[in-house]
Amino acid sequence: MTELEEYIKSYFGVKQTDLEHIVSLFKETTLKKDEYFLKTGQSCNKLSFIKSGFLRIYVTQEDKEITQWISTTGYFVTDLSSLIFETPTRWNIQALTDTELYTISKEDYQKIGNLISQWHQLEKLFIARCFTILEDRIFSHLSMTAEERYQFFFNHNKELFNQVPLQYIASMLGMTPETFSRIRKKQLS
Amino acid sequence: MTELEEYIKSYFGVKQTDLEHIVSLFKETTLKKDEYFLKTGQSCNKLSFIKSGFLRIYVTQEDKEITQWISTTGYFVTDLSSLIFETPTRWNIQALTDTELYTISKEDYQKIGNLISQWHQLEKLFIARCFTILEDRIFSHLSMTAEERYQFFFNHNKELFNQVPLQYIASMLGMTPETFSRIRKKQLS
DNA sequence: AAGCGCTCTTGATAAAAATCAAGAAATTAA
DNA sequence: TTAATTTCTTGATTTTTATCAAGAGCGCTT
């Protein structure tokens, strides 16, 4: 679980004994391609760190799917709102490829707070970071055209473009696959 | 400061002595119309609860202004990212009307954590709530047309429509004032 | 290798939204 | 109250994006 340790250490700088304790609560799990991590209506009862693979967060709305995000190696996946407030989730989270995860249950996750004094502080920082990412995303919708959103996302996530179906990236950027394809053609030439 | 007390009590359910302590750290402040709460590039060093009035959060970009949000009575105003990570803010926050606030400095705010054991836990919940709101907003951009966003926002924030310039609401919903005006005309008839 | 399903591309067309420009309407100031 | 300023509306036009439809490319399976 070196990657997970590295992540927690670098982001949260907890001391070694706490770090080991936290990491020990995560178990290795896997998902086969197309299996679900979470389904609409369920309450999210786990948090996972992605060791390898891709997961797509989406909803189905009137016969079409809207992809909210694609998560991959080195990031966490969960439904924060559902995990924290114990509400039913709106999202489906499905594996786009075979996926390896380090997973902690909600119960164990909640226990950490009792064992490590600064945990809520760290959690706060983690959620605040997620908040900041969303804030940037909203701003991109208020201030950029589809083409600009494409360009910006491409510059920051080149790898993704040859590893997952492009239609999902189109959706998460708020455009149709056709528009995505036309913009892409322009950028390539 | 009854409103502020009510808010903290109902959202965070802290015990009475803690509640009084927290509230005592807030000071009454005011802003005249058009004065700034925060300006682009500054580090946000305060958190305020709005007693009365309206504040607009916006940025200037290539000669035009993009409004990110309008905050009003009964809500908090700050730049969370800047407050927590001590980074320079991208936003301007300006009073749209004369405004009364209950304001706590970053220093005092940070002190609460040392004095009230569950504070970070409560902070976490607060930020998670903000996260959820942004998540909904992104989803509205991925799944709704300008007209649908108008309708949805109108249904949930009717009051705002006759209290602040509509161009700002247009901008925060991601459309031009002209488009906003045309949609509005349709909805009125 | 042929057939199937899925993804991506392309073209034609329609719809949505932005832009530009002018003028009302409403607010604020003199 | 009138003038000045700001905000909102309207129309004409352009640009952007979505929709619809068809076909190309590609990997899988058998």
Summarize the structure in words.
The structure is a homodimer of 189-residue chains. Chain A has 189 residues and is an alpha+beta fold. In chain A, strand 4 and strand 5 form a beta hairpin. The first copy, chain A, contains eight helices and eight strands. In chain A, helix 6 packs across helix 8. A four-stranded antiparallel β-sheet of chain A has the order 1-8-3-6. The model of chain A has no long low-confidence stretch (mean pLDDT 94). The first copy, chain A, has a domain of 114 residues: Jelly Rolls (Sandwich). The first copy, chain A, binds a DNA duplex (30 and 30 nucleotides) through helix 8.
Strand elements of chain A, count = 8
Q: What is the oligomer described by this structure?
A: homodimer
Residue share in helices of chain A? 40-55%
- Please state roughly what percent of the residues of chain A sit in beta strands, choosing from under 5%, 5-15%, 15-25%, 25-35%, 35-45% or over 45%: 15-25%
Under the CATH scheme, which class of the domain at 2-115 in chain A? Mainly Beta
| Radius of gyration of chain A over all CA atoms, rounded | 18 Å
Q: What integer is the average pLDDT of chain A?
A: 94
Which consecutive residue ranges of chain A, at least 5 long each, have pLDDT under 50?
none
Task: Using the 3D structure, state the CATH architecture of the domain at 2-115 in chain A.
Answer: Sandwich
Structural class of chain A: alpha+beta
**Largest inter-chain contact set:** A-B, 31 and 31 residues
Strand order of the biggest β-sheet of chain A? 1-8-3-6
- Please name the CATH topology of the domain at 2-115 in chain A: Jelly Rolls
